[in-house]
Amino acid sequence: MFPDFDPVAFHVGPLAVRWYALAYMVSFIIALPIAKRLNRLSPEVATKEQVDDFLFYAILGVLLGGRLGYVLFYRPMDYFSHPLEIFKTWDGGMSFHGGALGVILALAYFSWKNRLSFLAFADRIVPVVPIGLGLGRCANFVNGELWGRPASPDLPWAMIFPTGGPIPRHPSELYEALTEGVLLLCVMLFAASRPAARERFGFLSGLFLFGYACARSFCEFFRQPDANIGFLSGGTTMGQLLCIPMALAGMGLMVYAMRRPAQVSAHV
């Protein structure tokens, strides 16, 4: 049986801090010093102060992009019929693909504003993104949401979720936390430690896009599709469909980066 978690982590006076919000806050706290260290590796990309400044843009990109992406990709007609519901973020509803687009736009604007190489700066930021992905999926599990497809009762970790009916299901949130979070983080940090990868601007960004697309597409085979969308053509899901352009863009970026000579300076 699914543990009876309280979705509220703690209270600060009348304010209830939920696990999902806490996951976002902890993610930024952990990721910030790592991003600073990555940006100081050769070739040097940005200063510690610039990374600090980008945090504000990153938060806006994640929140606005994630919410608008959910509205447009998953429930457009519902929200267009009731537009004020868009602002009720406390009821849930965030899209990683929308959040990714929001962060990309934030990276592009911040790089232009500070005269930084867009691809070089993005390469030093994306390796820490899996921290937020992993903790976010853990928060999904605590909330008992986004559970998986029906599983065999013989599966030792199959679980009966409160809102998933009486049948055992895959805890797909934990699968995603392990693949999109832990595994992808290890891959990205290892790659970022290699000078050859850092000196080919765009390679790490491409690796992240391709790696996430593969991890998410795999986990979608165990995750129950959104009830209002269901399965798409050929038994695919919306999550897998959105991963196709991400994977293609990732492969394109890696090929582009490897065909270019190594760069010794990251400034425009």
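(the above was protein one; protein two follows)
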Amino acid sequence: MDAIALYDQTTLECSRLITQRYSTSFTLGIKTLDRKLHLPIYAIYGFVRYADEIVDTFHNQDKQALLERFKKDTYESIKAGISLNPVLHAFQLIVNKYKIDLDLIEAFLHSMEMDLDFKSYNDSKYHEYIYGSAEVVGLMCLKVFCEGDVAMYEKLKDPACKLGAAFQKVNFLRDIKSDFEERGRVYFPGVDFNQFNQCVKKRIEDNIQKDFNDSLIGIEQLPKSAKLGVKVAYLYYQKLFDKIKGLPAEKITQTRIRIPNSQKISLLVGTYFESKLGLT
């Protein structure tokens, strides 16, 4: 392996380490994809994870300045084809190899900027945020899954957006307590955290379930290399969502819903074999 190939591989493995440290479920989900897709998806996760950390974690820093620097460095790395930041170098490798559209990256970074300013969202800003924070991440992954097949990408764009939206909305519902208490945010438009009740919860759940239903047709048409992994992620989130649906509204506002790592592993392994055996 020559020196630049070694550097490329090392930065991609850095993104894998980041994914492993931050998300047990996402790491396990990636492992159900074809091996050739592992490092590209780790690189995308590493990028979005670190951008999210800027706005959600670095409370004693100038978040706006950090995000602006991260954004500038991102575009410079993509243009130059190199970065001394291992996360950005790994990401630019994948952006350039799979021709990920810059407007997807711009939309994502814009949603991160929204997190610095917005505490509540109307319908327009909510959909804008969902698109940038979740749907475009699904589209970045879809670029990798389609491996240059433009017609397939165009056909599967809408279902990929629906799946990304469903995942994000489940996260919002799961994290509604911590988002409000720690960051002062309520993402669902027109929802008052202090007036959150079963009727409001049911309305949100119906919207999420529709996104899940609309995404399924796209999952079934994915390439074999990606189909099982995405299906496992779909089933995992659907089961997490089912757990949330089974809880009363007051429970959601009092406790962040968690699934222990042991249960995550059991759930992911179970859905993997169910899918393999054609039971789901």
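Reviewer note on protein two: Residues 61 and 88 are 20 Å apart (CA to CA).
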